[in-house]
């Protein structure tokens, strides 16, 4: 039976136990990470750099698998660095950075991973069956097996960094400092979305795509606050990125891999771009809320 926590029993924001003016410690990794993002964006704008062209050049020179590694490896390394920083500088346990439960609930991670995997694979197969002209079969056994091995190791590290940094580290820091779960949710969700502004798909589709990225940030933030831990967010994010790089990619996104399928359809900017945020994401929240018996929505999200 799924457990049910009350606010008195569990509060993810206060798990950090920040005492004695330790909030300044949050500034160091925040300035470093956002500083790197800012410098990268400034250089791209100043020199009018076409990121899609850079990715294509890398693929021509070192292949898709090594281009994938060069794209994802930095965030994978950051995952290990943020966990070490929290443990040795904040003197905070990884468990308390992850969840309010006595130990990390891996069943939540695996359930979320399985749910998103089934959903994404099903939607892709349905779309492939109804719109086969929009896809090109790209499967080659050896390159795919190489991608599979790399992705299974690197994707969980990359997505875990983003979850530990945004939904755990910053959410606990901002929420604890301002004593506001709502402010922590809004800030981390918006910043998470804007972090993707330099992605090549933004240049292809337009800034309207930020609605999806910011909406995803809100989804993951709501899951974290309602469930009092990031286990569900960890599973969701890992499944979303892993299935994407393995199953279907395009020639104009950040990930251009040796996936099974390549989408050759021109990207749409119609109303369907909002379907994930306003239709599918609420469905995910409904499923999770029923399984884990979430309650006190107003207190957990707005106070």
From TrEMBL:
GO molecular function: endopeptidase activity
Transmembrane segments: 26-47, 67-88, 109-129, 141-161, 182-199, 205-225, 232-249, 269-288
Coiled-coil region: none
A Pfam match: Rce1-like
Domain of life: Bacteria
Keywords assigned by UniProt, alphabetized: Membrane, Transmembrane, Transmembrane helix
GO biological process: CAAX-box protein maturation
Signal peptide: none
Residue ranges of every copy of the CAAX prenyl protease 2/Lysostaphin resistance protein A-like domain listed in the record: 148-243
Keyword Transmembrane attributed: yes
Keyword Repressor: no
InterPro entries (UniProt xref): Rce1/LyrA-like_dom
The protein's name in its UniProt record: CAAX prenyl protease 2/Lysostaphin resistance protein A-like domain-containing protein
Organism: Psychroflexus halocasei
